[in-house]
Amino acid sequence: MRKEINADYLLWERLKKGDTSAFNELYGKYADILFSFGMVYSGDKEYVKDCIHDLFFELFKYRKNLSETNSIRNYLFKSLKRKVRSKQKGRLQLIYTADSLEWNDSGEGDGGDDPLQDDIQKLATAIQQLPERQQEALNLRFIVELPYSEVASIMDISLESVRTLVYRSVKTLREDLKDKQITVLFYVMRSY
Q1: Per the confidence metrics, is the pTM higher than 0.70?
Q2: What does the chain look like in DSSP terms, one character per residue?
Q3: Residue-wise pLDDT tens digits, 145-159
């Protein structure tokens, strides 16, 4: 199987050879997005940071045994998801709260009687009512902003299945939130 030669591929190859600057580049490039991804599965910031640090420690420790990959980002997302799952010893609990979907522009959205905060809380509650796979697909597509093909790879399902999950999720949310609030859904998910 021929691998596409790109910057990530070369970075991965350098890491496998023990290049510490490649390790630092990899960490700098992916740590923040992994943190955002991990926070959807656990509301505990320190726990997610520990999982990310463990992941990178193991990457470097076992670098000689790393397999080739078409997408470092997908590899890291899948690895972090497994790590969070194994440490929690059970089902992943997707976390959607008003805090994880917070919006703040010119001081708005930071509490009180803000109608937008109320809409965001309604959105968080509606998302928590969705089946776990639909929540995961929405998170990866809209919060982490991955293309459908990468979401399919991370979830180990077909591209068509991802599209169906997202479509059904949005349809359910649209029905639950009424059309008036669906605009908030897309705005918040795109601007997170």
Answers
A1: no
A2: -PPP--HHHHHHHHHHTT-HHHHHHHHHHHHHHHHHHHHHH-S-HHHHHHHHHHHHHHHHHTGGGPPP-S-HHHHHHHHHHHHHHHHHTS-------TTTT---BTTBTSSTT-HHHHHHHHHHHHHHTS-HHHHHHHIIIIIS---HHHHHHHHTS-HHHHHHHHHHHHHHHHHHHHHHHHHHHHHHHHH-
A3: 788 998 898 888 999
